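Re: the 206-residue chain
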Amino acid sequence: MDRKEYLKKRERLYRFSRLEAFSATRASNLSGGMKQKLALSYALMHDPELLVLDEPTTGVDPLSRQEFWDMLQELREGGVTILVSTPYMEEALKCDFVYMMHRGSIIGEGKPKNLAEDFEGSMYEFEIPGRKPQEYLGDLKDIFHGNPIFLSGKKVHLALRETGELEEIRLKLSSIDPRLSVTKVVPELEDIFMIRVLSEYPDATA
């Protein structure tokens, strides 16, 4: 492109990325989030119809991640097709269609909302006040052997294909710790991913 067109696009992308105030700053001195915005601006200079991004927000602070996705949403509304990989399930929820991958294989696909709603069975959440979930995860695995069970933050999640009664489940857990609580919860996209992984690869680390 000629210089006049370049300067026009540069100013537009500065405003789009909100990096205009840092136009005199070397890229090496920008924060991680700003570097990602700058890289996105580079990729947009030629007005692409397709944008391919590989984990663009990994290592970026939460506020910059949100700003970055706001930019992607604006591009999407402008007609740009975006193919993005991400390890963050809350980012996957922003997409129109999702492929879940593990060990190089697709283990699930569909609209994010449908993937969660199509789960057949029940999801339970376990917690023992004052104890780390890693301390009793092994005991739960022994009791519910063969069912997907995994860490979820500071709690443990269990997926049962058949609906179980809470009292029946509590009875099975009485020997672990009398303080152990169990609650029936609605599975989220991250739960669906872990269920698919552990169903396909039972030896995977939860």
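The beta strands are 50-54, 81-85, 98-102, 105-110, 122-127, 149-152, 155-160, 181-185.
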